[in-house]
Specification:
By secondary structure, the protein is an all-alpha fold. It is built from 7 helices and no strands.
Length: 234
């Protein structure tokens, strides 16, 4: 499992790097107008995969939270922790890369009137809260139940964020993949974007395995230390 984790991480990381290179060299330049900053659009080849991968990470968080509530097993909690860590990682990738493009294209890094931007920002904030709380609060049933509940609330923002652009579109671009025939997305752009999405998903798979393994090893080490302490006491 460790071998597959490192292998997928390396393959995904190489694909992510290749996506950046192709985004700057292979993908064509967009027209201006309507784009105010044609070159800045290239960051979207990372921004969009970051967003889609973060949704998958929050799916892991959701599955882990439900598993913890139903089974009360350590593997469910470890899966929840893995999903929150990766949700924060890829979520930060979105909220960092998005404002870079927004500053160039819109003239402002963030639009507080845009529903999708704010719901995703709140989603990332939930992941940050969970990660920091896990570090600050003592581990226990009550802490796990509370954070799992917060995680389920955060996951409810995923479908809201996913449909916000279609239902309430203001500044954020529409879903270009789903509407490629209408937007006229260049085939080369689509190729680079697909490469980016697949690479980020492979990277996430590798990081998920490694992160889960680290939490599992931490649990086994903690149980071993408790066993040693019991033997010393008795």
């Amino acid at each position: 499992m460790k071998f597959y984790g490192w292998g997928l991480t390396c393959i995904g990381g190489a694909g992510v790097l290749l996506t950046a290179i192709m985004g700057y060299t292979y993908a064509p330049l967009v027209q201006s107008p309507p784009f105010r900053s044609p070159e800045a659009y290239r960051i979207l080849f990372w921004h969009v995969p970051f967003a889609w991968t973060s949704f998958l990470s929050f799916c892991l968080l959701f599955i882990g939270a439900i598993s913890w509530f139903l089974k009360r097993k350590e593997w469910g909690w470890n899966l929840f922790c893995t999903g929150s860590d990766l949700g924060l990682l890829f979520g930060l990738g979105v909220v960092i890369s998005g404002p870079i493009w927004g500053s160039a294209e819109w003239g402002v890094p963030w639009d507080w009137g845009d529903l999708r931007l704010n719901t995703f920002g709140l989603l990332t904030a939930v992941a940050l809260f969970i990660v920091l709380s896990r570090k600050a609060q003592p581990d226990g049933i009550e802490t796990r139940d509370t954070l799992s509940t917060v995680g389920l609330f955060g996951f409810a923002l995923v479908p809201i964020t996913a449909v916000a652009t279609t239902v309430y579109q203001k500044r954020h671009p529409s879903v270009v993949i789903a509407e490629s025939s209408e937007t006229g997305l260049d085939p080369k752009m689509l190729q680079v974007l697909i490469l980016g999405v697949i690479s980020f998903w492979i990277l996430m798979a590798g990081l998920s395995l490694l992160t889960y393994l680290s939490y599992n090893m931490e649990y086994e080490l903690r149980k071993l230390l408790e066993k040693i302490d019991d033997e010393v006491v008795h």
